[in-house]
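Tutorial, part two.
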Amino acid sequence: MRTYKLLGIILFFLAFLAGCSSTNFTIKVKEDLSGKIRVCHLADQSIFSELTPGAKIISESFSKRDFLFFVQYKLEVTLGFLKESQVLPEGSPPIDFLVILPGAITKTNASKVKDNNTAIWEFSPGKKFALNIESRLIRWWLIILMGIIILRFAFKRLGKLKGG
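Running the prediction step on this input gives:
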């Protein structure tokens, strides 16, 4: 009985620690070396340091749902840019909107997905765009650790039953 109490305490402690995380979330806009303006939404990562005028976040919704073995991120953004003549010279390349979220992207309306965690939208100034993205970060370390603990206690219990 003492073994089961210890197992319960360890599993409770691991579950408690798994939920103790935070998400830093910021928006940046910057012109890169190729002349494209990049708007970056990044969670839990460092980002560009300078803002470029012209981009405007009209509305945004960011949620992080923490389950025991995985974390689900969901981002919805309505993005607007000033008219091209106010921001960019005539004939400028399209603007990329780049979102990097932890884990693997599970759902998005992006035109491209890179490295399974980066969604890229390409569009022109002067319009509004609704962007949606969801990702899931699986806590493999917790799954493996809990499996090892459960198997260890199961084999220990099985050994006691066989031994008498």
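The longest strand covers residues 55-66. In part three we will examine how such features are distributed along the chain.
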